[in-house]
Each structure stands twice: as C-alpha cells, then as structure tokens.
C-alpha cells in the first residue's frame, strides 16, 4: 500500500522538476542510479546475483 501511495503522490506533482526518482524495487528515493532505475542497494544485490548483464565486480 505504501508503494502505491508513493507512486500516486509523485504523479500529482505540479511541476516535473518536483518529481523524485525512486527505485523500481524498493521505492528508495536516495542513492538512485538513473541508468539502471534502481537504488545502490538493490543494484548491488542484482549485480552479485548476475541479473544485470555486463556488470562485474571491480578490483584494483
């Protein structure tokens, strides 16, 4: 219910600059990665599981 409420609230914004990007999985507004559409936490989980093609763990 909370996620549905957040989506509805974002659609009602008066100006497009007020719309906040949110993670598609958990709805988190901070740490959002625009290229993948998820937050940093969900991105890491998906990358470790191999769900995002082309992403590898870096080491140097």
Short description:
With 60 residues, the chain is mostly helical. Helix content is 33%, strand content 7%.
State the secondary-structure class: mainly alpha
Name the shape in a single word.
elongated
The run of helices and strands is HEEH
Helix content: 25-40%
Arithmetic mean of pLDDT: 85
Rg measurement, Å? 14 Å
The order of strands across the largest sheet is 1-2
The biggest beta sheet reads: 2 strands, antiparallel
Number of domains: 1
For the record, the CATH architecture stands as Irregular
Find the count of extended strands (DSSP E, 2+ residues). 2
Low-confidence stretches: none
Keywords: Metal-binding, Ribonucleoprotein, Ribosomal protein, RNA-binding, rRNA-binding, Zinc
GO biological process, one term: translation
GO molecular function, one term: rRNA binding
GO cellular component, one term: cytoplasm
Describe the protein's topology.
Layout: H1 2-11, E1 32-33, E2 38-39, H2 40-49
Antiparallel strand pairs: 1-2
How does this model look, in words?
This protein is mainly α and 60 residues long. It has one domain: 30s Ribosomal Protein S14, Chain N (Irregular). Helix content is 33%, strand content 7%. The chain contains two helices and two strands. The chain has a two-stranded antiparallel ribbon with strand order 1-2. The mean pLDDT is 85.
Descriptors:
single chain, mainly alpha, 30s Ribosomal Protein S14, Chain N, 60 residues
